[in-house]
Amino acid sequence: MTGTVRLTVSQALVRYLAALQAEVMQPDGRTAVQPYCAGVFAIFGHGNVAGLGEALHAERERLPTLRAHSEQGMAHAAVAFAKAHFRQRMMAVTSSIGPGATNLVTPAALAHVARLPLLLLPGDIFASRLPDPVLQQVESFEQGDLSANDCLRPVTRYFDRIMQPGQLLVALPRAIQVMTDPAQCGPVCLALPQDVQTQAFDWPMDFFHPPLIRLRRQPADAAELEQAVALLAAAKRPLIVAGGGVLFSQAWEALRVFAETHGVPVAESQ
Predict the structure, then answer these.
(1) By the 8 A CB rule, do 79 and 118 touch?
(2) DSSP states of 148-214
(3) Taking CA atoms, which of 109, 122, 136, 141 is between 20 and 30 Å from 218?
(4) 94 strand-pairing partners
(5) Residues 6+ apart with CB under 8 A from 71
(6) b/e 62-73 (16+ beta carbons within 10 angstroms → b)
(7) What's the alpha-carbon Rg for the chain, to the nearest Å?
(8) For the segment 9-21, what is each residue's pLDDT rounded down to a tens digit?
(9) What is the pTM of this model?
């Protein structure tokens, strides 16, 4: 699709998320196409209400906004949503700048450890540095480009601060790529400076027609299978410790049949 459309950064981000579709495996083994991003948990404030808030309101029919009262609680809910849907779908969360953003650190750490997709969209300091500081901004007088959102760097698998509109063309698809990769999967953060959120840009129309997400399911390695078979055959008291991979692959029926056929007890990881 050719041509461009003039939108703000926030409008483009929301329209892209609303357009994302994923091929989701159902419990009966059939697949269905569903929105990859089920919605956005939000607590609006000076860091995100005028930009992202306005854009979400305009697209509320296609991308639901769920108001929350605790940044940490809403991010934990988004992590739980991803786990309940076996990493096939995710939710985004947005907060204002400062303490609102730091409340996202613990859920991000949980998603990082558990390898669950979570899209963090906190407001950030003005890219222009005017005004500076703003209300509740965790400012640093030693580093002008440092904000509270830098706390999220160690607990995310991808972090970017969008300092000018065109950067979103690369950063947003890359964030989705990380969340849908079976090995890299985890939380990602796109920090959104308040002024950049409302800056207009001529976006390519094909940006808003992303390809269907098909989650890769890696087959078992033949050599590793042989090792596992040899270990089980030689074991006097074998035990299978089943982890998240069984859930994400929806292989619970295959595990049950194997365990019952061979009489091997099963325990679960966290």
Answers:
(1) yes
(2) GGGGGGGG-SEEEE--SGGGHHHHHHHHHHHHT-TTT-SEEEEEEEHHHHT-EEEEEGGGGSPPPB-
(3) 109
(4) 42, 121
(5) 43, 93, 95, 100, 101, 103, 104
(6) ebbbeebeebbe
(7) 21
(8) 999 999 999 999 9
(9) 0.92
